[in-house]
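Deliverable D4.2, example record:
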Amino acid sequence: MSLHTNLTGRLRNTNLRKSHGLFPVFEAVVNSLQALEENDNLLTGGTVTLKILRSQQASSELDNSEYCSEIVGFEIHDNGIGFNEENMASFETLDSDHKIGKGCRGVGRLLWLKAFDRADVTSAFKSDSSGIIKRQFSFTAAQGIKTQNHEPDPNGEGPFSILTLSGFDKKYRDACPKTATSIANALLEHCLWYFVREYSVPRITIKDGTETIALENLFDQYMHSKASKESIDIKGYAFRLTHIKFHASTKKKHSLALCAANRLVQEIPISHQIPGLFGKISDEAGEFIYTCYISSDYLDGHVRPERTAFDIADDIGGILEDVEVSFKDMQRHVLARSKQYLNNYLSENLKAGRERINQFVSEKAPRYRPVMHLINQQEFSVDPRMSDKELDTLLHKQYSDIERQLLAEGHEIMNPAIESDMDLYQKKLKAYLKKAEDFKKSDLASYVSHRRVILDLLEKYIGQMDNGKYVHEELIHQLIMPMRKTSEEVSTDACNLWLIDERLAFHDFLASDKSLRSMPITDDSSTEEPDLCALNINDNPILVSEKKSMPLASLTVVEIKRPMRNDASEGEDKNPIEQALGYLKRIREGKVKTTSGRPIRNSQEIPGYVYVISDLTPTMVERCELASLTETCDGMGFFGYNKPRNAYIEVISYDRLLQSAKERNRAFFDQLGLPA
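Output generated by the structure prediction step:
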């Protein structure tokens, strides 16, 4: 039974990614190299020339410019065995196994027509009976293979082949490299195996107008030192590794290069996957970039027909786990050998990375210091050029991983097996408690570091901006407590009332920029909005009698004014002291309850505390004096008591607020090594 092939349909089902537009060209070059091998002249005069065809041939001044004329096609010349009868029969047979021993799948010519409109071949080969025979044919999607000439050429020279690929598809053309140098670099990558193997160095030349590039010379420029080879076994399959150092001037990155049939198929970046492997590394000859080329019969057998990827699972489990090789298996084994190969070259990077971590933890993130000894320093390294944000994220991941392990250990410790050895259990318990203690220290360090950041922000906010003005009070308000929120809506971490008074960190209810009517601590119907209002309820610790417990409560009102504002005047609208006392009066007139709805007895007698955060401008000083407040000894604030409102009043300048908060926290900062 005969089967017919629909070439157009076959092309439709052949995959070629847009970024792989030069792949058919490079595969044609590899075909030429194989033709040289068949002709036994790979090293004795065998040549392959790749000519770049442009719409208008670029001048020599523009050869390396991204603005040179568009590429419309390529010509590949070789003096290999030519399209003899056997090779031609193979070409006419899709999925031919003629060169299967070299990893060929018999589908490469389909890729020509994926990226180009047509392929034209002129070839001469030796015939035992007729001497030199010249063959010409074209290959298109519409007509397939169309022979134009096939006859003896007694005066002709040969063997040779010229393949012309024309009509470069725009989507592939736009995505491919434009200059001769970039194309030569990409071709060298694709054919590098032919250069690093011990017994052949092919002569491949790129021509673009007047510019000529010999890949052999380019390879010499690439190579930092001689390649190193070894073989490893993965689940019974042999994998050949070629460790290569490229000059650091190349644009390559540290990678694993998976090869099949002597071609590069897939590259996997490995920076940061080996401790200390980032940026450029050095040996006695200077800086270099590392790549490990991997080849194997296993890879040859699992490469996809287009040779742009592999049919290999990322990971394998179940009954096939011990017999099938996954990408995870390959990476684990190859990276272990790469680490061994690079071991002597990574010490400087590891040292610089440790110094970067130590500096960051010491100066900016002391929360990690108590747990740093729990991180595997042999496996954890960072690029010293990493940003603070990236480093913090990386350390936090390590922190979270250790915390997760600690949680699992805790469950095991708290639920010991009955038959557990007591001495072993005691050792595990001791180790667990030590880790738990370190995490508590880390939490405290995080809390103190947060305070340092808040103080830095406050110092920045109260300063004069570049335009000579000062920030609006809303920014400072947000720093102390998010606006239009209550303590039931935000976590305590978002509140920084300690800037004003450490006692304000302990409250039963806090409202920020909320109307009195919307506060559950009062039934007042007023829509006035104090900046901050707090209710604090405490049992008297001295009275221990169950029958005589005294529920004491305090109300705190905070008013925040814009730095250097100088418009304080008489009246509640302009006088922040009167404004705060007015809020306090209206709260007392409501039926005050706790957040759980329980009444607070003697609410009229609840002591009130009023804080006004404002710079001591002339008008503000005048308001303080008219309120009979006393100036502090440092001259940076006022304080006093208002008997009619039963309220203690404190006016705090921004300088005093910042200085006082710094002094209260200085001991903590010193303990953590933070700059005070």
